[in-house]
Amino acid sequence: MTTVAIADRRCESRVQCASTAHHSAARFAGLAAARRVHLPHAMRSNLALTCLLLAPFTACATTNDVVIELAPDLISSIDGTLTVHALALSDRDPVGGEKIDLSVDYTDRNGTPHAIEPITGTTDDSGAFEGVFSGLTFDGTGTVTAVVHGGDGDVTGSATFAVLDRTPPALTITPPAQIRINQDTSVSVHITDEIGISQVLFEATFSDNGNNNRDRSTIVTSGSLDATITFEVRPNDTQVGATVTLHALGEDLSGNLAAAASVTLTVMP
């Protein structure tokens, strides 16, 4: 059995490697395995090692790059989750045992920012770290930033993503029992959306002997997920027996539109 002589030296960067001893030990163990040599047990298990080098290597592995992969980079608002794979590297070699912070800068299509909880952890022996973000439900764009706190300072990497919301709101009209001429009648519209309702447009079309009159009104709901809105209908310039057709159109915060099934009633005296 061959034993490698190990010298206690300082890093070329003049930074003690005690804070990165875990990945140093792992890296050296891999180098030793490649050369089919034996490392003392203390070298393999002691996480308080300073910059111990295998001859002829003369420098500690220090993170100088971080690679980020997103899955997916185009997110459905129905799911709203994003998996981030980060890899800390010293040139092309992975670096384990490094503290890493993941954060998200995310705004919707209207420019409104949405806070997402950051993730903190440590890279594993292969230099990898994985985190999953949730709450990405608004149509918009964002950037994931990874900061690896290495022995020679922070190293930053970033990647961008987009969130698509193509799900329209759902809405229904609850018709009144009857509509009477020259009287106010309440009509309810129920609307729901998974990310938020922007507005509801209501229209009543009165048809009388080929003449059509329209009464329109719009209510802004300011992001409600579930709302019941009441509109008032008053048949004035029409006659008994005329028809009234009720329409409702809803829009969510992503700009998706949906129409309720129309309802037709006859004007009563």
How would the blueprint of this fold be written?
Elements: E1 6-8, H1 21-35, H2 41-45, E2 52-54, E3 65-71, E4 74-76, E5 82-90, E6 93-94, E7 99-108, E8 119-122, E9 128-133, E10 140-150, E11 153-164, E12 170-174, E13 179-180, E14 185-192, E15 197-208, E16 211-220, E17 226-233, E18 243-252, E19 257-259, E20 263-268
Parallel strand pairs: 4-11, 13-20
Antiparallel strand pairs: 1-2, 3-5, 5-6, 5-9, 7-8, 7-10, 10-11, 12-14, 14-17, 15-16, 15-18, 18-19, 18-20
What's a concise summary of this model?
With about 270 residues, the chain is mostly beta strands. Helices cover about 5% and strands about 50% of the residues. The chain folds into 3 domains: about 5-55, no CATH class; about 65-165, Sandwich (Immunoglobulin-like); about 170-269, Immunoglobulins (Immunoglobulin-like, Sandwich).
DSSP strand count: 20
Low-confidence stretches: 1-59
The Rg value, from CA coordinates, equals 32 Å
- Average pLDDT confidence is 80
What percentage of amino acids are in beta strands? Answer: over 45%
Main sheet makeup? 6 strands, mixed
Q: Give helix and strand order, one letter per element, not per position.
A: EHHEEEEEEEEEEEEEEEEEEE
Oligomer classification: single chain
CATH superfamily of the largest domain: Macroglobulin (MG2) domain
Quickly name the level 1 CATH class of the largest domain: Mainly Beta
Number of domains: 3
The number of helical segments is 2
Task: Name the helicity range.
Answer: under 10%
